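Student: Hello, beginner here. Can you help me understand the protein record under this note? Any guidance would be welcome.
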Amino acid sequence: VNKYPHIPAPVERIKVEYAYYGLVQKDAYLTKFSPKIIGFLPVYHLLVMDDLGLGLDYRHLYEQKTKLPEHDLELLVNYLLRLHQLKVHA
């Protein structure tokens, strides 16, 4: 994770990320908020996804002690509710 080099990110995490984004892409609502998988090469620990552009990471909420806008909060809650309802086959 180049953007945050101070956060440990073992290469094996890519398999979990691939499984997560693959599951999310099966739901039309969740897909609107997630990058599309273009390709996955597990041997090289390489997951290629669409670029989401200049979206916010909400770091400012912690740095400036601001509140999440109500609209964003509603989207987040709806996303999490929908995510929780997904059927996961282990």
